[in-house]
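Chain X:
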Amino acid sequence: MEINTPSWLSCTQTIALALEVSLQRGLATLGQELPPLWHEWVEEYQQSLGELSDPQVLLAETESAKVWAAVVAFLRVGRGTLFIANHQWQQREWQQVAQFLHPDRLWGSSIWQQQWLKLTNSDLAVTSVHHQTITPENQPAPKRSEPLIGFPTGGSSGTIRFALHSPQTLTVAVGGLRQFLAPLLPSNGQINSLCLLPLYHVGGFMQWWRSALTAGNFSPLDYGLVKEFPPPLPPDYLTSLVPTQLAYLLDRHGSWLKNFRLIFLGGAPAWPALLTKAKAAGLNLAPTYGMTETAAQIATLTPAEFLAGHTGVGKLLPHVHLTITNSQDEIVAPGTVGIINIQSDALFQGYVPQGTGQKEEIFTTGDLGYCHHGYLHITGRRGRRLISGGENIDPEEIEAFLLDQNLVQDVAIVGVGDRHWGEMLVAVYVPKPSLGNDPLSLNQCVKAQLSKPKCPKHWFPVPTLRRSPLGKLNYQFWQTWAREQLDAEEANQDG
């Protein structure tokens, strides 16, 4: 379904102003204001782009206020591509990005800029870097009529790339969500957001975009501070959480969460026990499904549906068309699990480093799911399905069982190549701070409830699984790590 958007939203300068006003109002509701140097920062970012016709900018500011200022400045200029980096990346991640991205401008601290130049083996001054982003043919990217914003994505593969969105794709996503939520919003249709997610994730950035385009308030807060001292909540506010955030806040600040008009839940699968607890607490929870490539959610369960006992991630938003197919690209019958394919004007414009101009009419995801009576259900990731001993196994089922039974704090089930099993199941887990969660006890619990092929052959406890702010795991990293642990054990036995 086509979503009509006001003509003023085609002007990036107007959007920049709306973002600034929304932020200013949102900070005021928290008793805060824009930093004294705000306008100076915005002006500096604008001037740094000079007369570049198609500037490529890598943004890695660590201060949230400077990230806001950089986004506003970029949209005021209204051309080029802004790549929003995760400033918490470590050396390995930065090295990946440095292999394919050669920006004209680096926006970040001077120390970080020097580190970047070392990674790229460049002896040029930062202000004189004028490279273009590399495309597959190693040619300069073509000039575009509208600016693009690149959001980092890696999923469970661990390979970093940027998904490119235009202001138009982001705006279509807002229009679809606003239309869907109309009965749940204030009469003026404002979307006021209390944001606890970083802006380098679509889940955080879109909260700002929604608030700005609906004349709402955008109130960003540091999640670490909220964990300890949740602030008084203004009326008619929404927020977005990932399951790990919901679990923590529900245990400690459940009454505070009840004040939200709506709580979107996404980013990673939520285990059944967590949803049951949220329902018992009467939270206005809205489980969602979406991704970076779709500019956040494309399906949402309303709080009323959630509290009434509906499962899954809800009905499709009006700007989305979805089909579910088998491996031969044939549409499957309703209720049958298959591959999720998406059509929408909110789809991303292409990847970097794969290049731009590759937007397809249909985006085939890596997710498996089915539709039942109009409600979408997600069953897992296609790329994570394992074959062990000739059996098809979905690791998400085992992870959900362990979390649902409160047997572990966190867990990742990975498959390691094995001559006998084909793929051997390995559990990497964070133990509960209590007795009875040693590998032998955990293995017995799984065997008592799940079929034998679903029982991990090895259990490795770790202090943390280092989830991203959106609750995602780098499964490729833990698969490699598990392989190394098994190799070390085998070497010790041989020795």
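Chain Y:
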Amino acid sequence: MVLTKTKTTASQVEILAKLYLEGKPAEISDETIAQLCDWLMDEFHQLPLNLQFSDYMRYADVKELFADIEQGHLWVSADSYDSSVYPNPIYGFIFQGMHDYDHYLTDSDFSLEGEVMSQKLVSGKVNRPNLAFSSSYVYCFCV
């Protein structure tokens, strides 16, 4: 597997940082959150991995991540996902595991471009109108 590398310009990072810092948070309805949770549970049942929660395990790079995935295992860090949108932290755990597996499927690293590639794969999986979801990295609204 070859890692995908692309070049991020300073202006792209600046624009995204400004949106993140100055943008208003999305307002997500209870109905949409329920749809998100149902969808995440469906996706969880399709993951070919043993997800394991950890307070201390972190992947330094995608090579470590990919090596574990190829062994059918994936550590999910307690502080690596945004659980504020979910009614139960298990959904943030599932989303993070799915997101990390999507890095593997897209052969992308942890750069800005890699995060966007992983998020694009997720948005392609969602076929429910108006389903909105967030991760710590990118907000993706599928309408």
